[in-house]
Amino acid sequence: MAVLEAEDIKFIKNGRLILDVEHFSLPAGEVTALIGVNGAGKTSLMQILALLQQPTSGRIFFKGQQVHRGNLLKLRQKMAFVFQQPLLLDMSVRKNIEIGLRFRKVPKKEMDRRVQEWLEKLGIYHLADGPVRYLSGGEAQRVSIARALALEPEVLFLDEPFTGLDSPTRGQLLLDIANLLHGTKIATLFVTHDYAEIPHLAHRLSVLDHGKLIQTGTPQEIYRQPKNETVTRLLQWLPLRGEMQGGRSRIEKEALA
């Protein structure tokens, strides 16, 4: 079942057609990776799906319900973002995770339960009452992810969340997030420029080129049957599970380093 769907989306900015997408969906319980060269329209599509940018034309549906001005804010509260930069406030780890829950007026007992749960699941409980200013990059991103997942979103947007981290930290965080998300009902959109991350996290892969979706399928399907030369070029370095030299991908080797 698709949690979020976009139909006939066009987005024009400064007289230029940025997006022309006939249909795009995010199924419940799946991670969809979105790739494309710089300027392909990935950021614009993500912002439109997250209800942060209004398209020039087209429709967005949340569980079959069309998004409109009257339900926009309510539906935004069913979504969460993790950005490339953690965007933490200068307070304790615990308070950073609490902040979205306070904004949404989650009762204190429930808020405490969720914060405790995600501190433990992200392996940062020992940092809970310390200031975020002393965290490493990987620790800060774990706080950002805990903050997003504590909201119990139905849709999660991951905007290059592993970029800028050192190799062992990045590899371990990627594998941890995959373990946390797989088996949930969260519909996730994952934007990345490092295609080695895709086989470990994504169930589906969508390729965007010049504002158009040119192919969607499993990473294996697209790798083995690319629709055109553009897709072939983009995916030439994509490693697939079971097809990596030595039985381990670069990501797994980084996590073990």
TrEMBL record:
Top class in the EC scheme: hydrolase
Alphabetic keyword roster: ATP-binding, Hydrolase, Nucleotide-binding, Transport
Signal peptide: none
GO molecular function, one term: ATP hydrolysis activity
Domain ABC transporter: 4-235
Assigned EC number: 3.6.3.25
SUPFAM superfamilies: P-loop containing nucleoside triphosphate hydrolases
Entry keyword Nucleotide-binding: yes
Classification via InterPro entries: AAA+_ATPase, ABC_SmlMolc_Importer, ABC_transporter-like_ATP-bd, ABC_transporter-like_CS, P-loop_NTPase
The keyword Nucleotide-binding appears for this protein: yes
Highest taxon above the source species: Bacteria
SMART domains for the chain: AAA
This protein's name: Sulfate-transporting ATPase
